[in-house]
Design goal:
Blueprint (H helix, E strand, L loop, with lengths): L2 E7 L5 E7 H24 L1
Antiparallel strand pairs: 1-2
Length: about 45
């Protein structure tokens, strides 16, 4: 995956686009995978 895009439209029709790519995307991918790892570690403890 090379980029991530979040599209947002509010009730008053304000449209926003947030694009994440490069080093920033890699940072968020690593944060997400870290949280998934913690989830499975907690699940195995219970």
């Amino acid at each position: 995956m090379e980029a991530g895009v979040i599209l947002l439209c509010t009730v008053d029709n304000l449209f926003q686009e947030f694009k994440i790519e490069g080093a920033e995307l890699e940072m968020y991918q690593n944060l997400f995978l870290g949280r998934v790892k913690k989830f499975y570690e907690m699940k195995n403890i219970s």
